Amino acid sequence: MVNQTVPPVGSGPPVRAAGQTAGEDGRLWELARDTLDGNWAGGHTVPSRTLYPHQWSWDSAFIAIGWAHVRPERTWSELTSLFRAQWRDGRVPHIVFNPAVSGGAYFPGPAFWASETVEGAPAVATSGLVQPPVHALAAWHAYRRLPSEEGRAALRRLYPRLVAQQRYLATCRDVGGAGLASIVHPWESGLDNSPAWDAPMSAVPAEAAVMRAYRRRDTVHADPAHRPTDLDYARYVTIVTAYRAGGYRDDDLAERHPFLVECPLFNAAMGASELALAGIAEVVGADPGPHRERAVRITEAVVTRLYDPDSGTFHPRDLRTGRLTPARTVLGLTPLILPGLPTRQIEAVLAEARSARFGLAARMDRPLPSHDRTATDFEPLRYWRGPSWMNIVWLIRHGLLAHGHDRLAAGLRTSMIELVAAAGCHEYFHPDTGAGLGSPAFSWTAALLLDVLAD
């Protein structure tokens, strides 16, 4: 379980980072709280009011953590709202569409996904993809921050749905047969256009007709130089179209689907979530043993399938070729969230994290990048190809805490606070200058700032 030693806290007061004053901490606390309040849509929180007007799956998990510090009832509303849209097979869709928002406000919108035509989909319009299963982690972390009867009741309601989510991934998505879940689209990784996907994406056709068939909305609200290229977007649409054509079925993915990858972050989240579910099970009166056993098996599979001893880090495995993808991205550091990760892999990943590629230190000179800073394809401005993201830093920080590396975790905490102090609650940040990039007033940045301020 991630960060088991953190004591429960309420809505403050925040603990100062090095160099912060009490007044500055209070300003940041209020900025984060006001950002979340401004993005509250009644029942759930939108990631931002501009680019992301609906509910996103792993965003809501991170957002729920922040609400625990300022409006705890919204923690459980956030997660309950998301899991009401769970499909009958257990999948939790990566987007839940707000019917009050125009269908043209975001692409791909509800008409593109056509979830209403699929048996087993919920009544509300959703996408057919998933995102990293960090929801049990979030629910358990939020509950331990502020235990309450309301929280226990919410955990009792959420527990069977969280179990169903894990069961779906462990069964329907184990395409490789080795105990790991496969993602069927880069969007499912959460790191949408990471260089980690370049190799498997290169095999996906992107025909001119596909590129003419839709209008992107992201580049209306964000600088196109910061977003995925048109070629990448055409491939994204091609992959979704293939999945949709099969009714979002998973039974024959190996035969027909163009993108199948075992992702280190996705599967590390699965393993860590089993340990979180073990904690939740004890609270709600269920058996924690099977969750602990599954966590061990997933950890072993992550090490066996995704660790590369030559590079000393973890890589996604492309099931179409059977090979690990070559890019050295921040995905390789995320298995630190597995408390049972063997010492050899912990030490190797820490060496990778401390190298010039990522620059992890007790005192960070620059933010933690999402891609190898020394690589020729490092792009400090483009979405997931270099910039620093608060949610990934939060996960790695808690992995460091779980393995007793408090000084390195403190370096990440200070870096997170300093980023927002200088640039505000942006979606992501320049990995060299710390300048704010992407959407302003971004919810998970605000939520996770509250969490680290409260430590």
UniProtKB/TrEMBL annotation:
Domain Mannosylglycerate hydrolase MGH1-like glycoside hydrolase: residue ranges: 52-445
A Pfam family annotated for this UniProt entry: MGH1-like_GH
Region (Disordered): 1-23
Transmembrane helix listed as a keyword: no
Keyword annotations from UniProtKB, A to Z: Glycosidase, Hydrolase
Keyword Hydrolase included in the entry's annotation: yes
InterPro entries assigned to the protein according to its UniProt record, in alphabetical order: 6-hairpin_glycosidase_sf (IPR008928), 6hp_glycosidase-like_sf (IPR012341), Glycoside_hydrolase_63 (IPR004888), MGH1-like_GH (IPR054491)
Family: Belongs to the glycosyl hydrolase 63 family.
PANTHER family cross-referenced by the UniProt entry: MANNOSYL-OLIGOSACCHARIDE GLUCOSIDASE
Protein name per the record: Mannosylglycerate hydrolase MGH1-like glycoside hydrolase domain-containing protein
